[in-house]
Backbone:
């Protein structure tokens, strides 16, 4: 049995595939659409995992709140490409490692923030945000 596909249908399918392939590019958002530059915060705690996938890498950590209870935080960082270009890799932040993060709270989600600077236990500071790309604060 032989199937035939008209040029119109084939073109529509190709266009659809190209659109879907480009979705990760459109997934990027400006800082101000999700985070509040007037709500800086500092978190100190322990890394639980790292998600090294585009368009953003994420660092998950447990940190104590004001009441002394541990909360898990999801911290958005720049793209893995940006982080790699600045000397970081997926294993830079290891589960169990203590870090301090300068970040800005999300406007609508609890325990979500935009990480800007990560300081490791040995005092090394790393810029994990790309302010020129997302329009957010550098620190």
Residues:
């Amino acid at each position: 049995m032989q199937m035939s596909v008209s040029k119109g249908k084939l073109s529509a399918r190709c266009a659809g595939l190209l659109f879907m392939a480009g979705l990760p590019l459109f997934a990027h958002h400006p800082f101000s659409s999700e985070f509040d530059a007037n709500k800086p915060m500092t978190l100190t705690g322990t890394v639980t995992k790292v998600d090294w996938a585009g368009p953003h890498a994420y660092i998950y950590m447990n940190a104590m709140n004001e009441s002394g209870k541990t909360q898990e935080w999801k911290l958005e960082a720049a793209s893995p490409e940006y982080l790699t270009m600045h000397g970081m890799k997926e294993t830079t932040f290891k589960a169990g490692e203590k870090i301090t993060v300068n970040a800005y709270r999300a406007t609508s989600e609890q325990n979500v923030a935009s990480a800007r600077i990560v300081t490791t236990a040995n005092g090394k500071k790393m810029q994990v945000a790309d302010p020129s790309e997302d329009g957010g604060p550098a620190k």
In short: The first strand starts at residue 35 and ends at 52. The chain has one domain: 31-134. DSSP finds three helices and six strands in the chain. Confidence is low (pLDDT under 50) at residues 10-27.
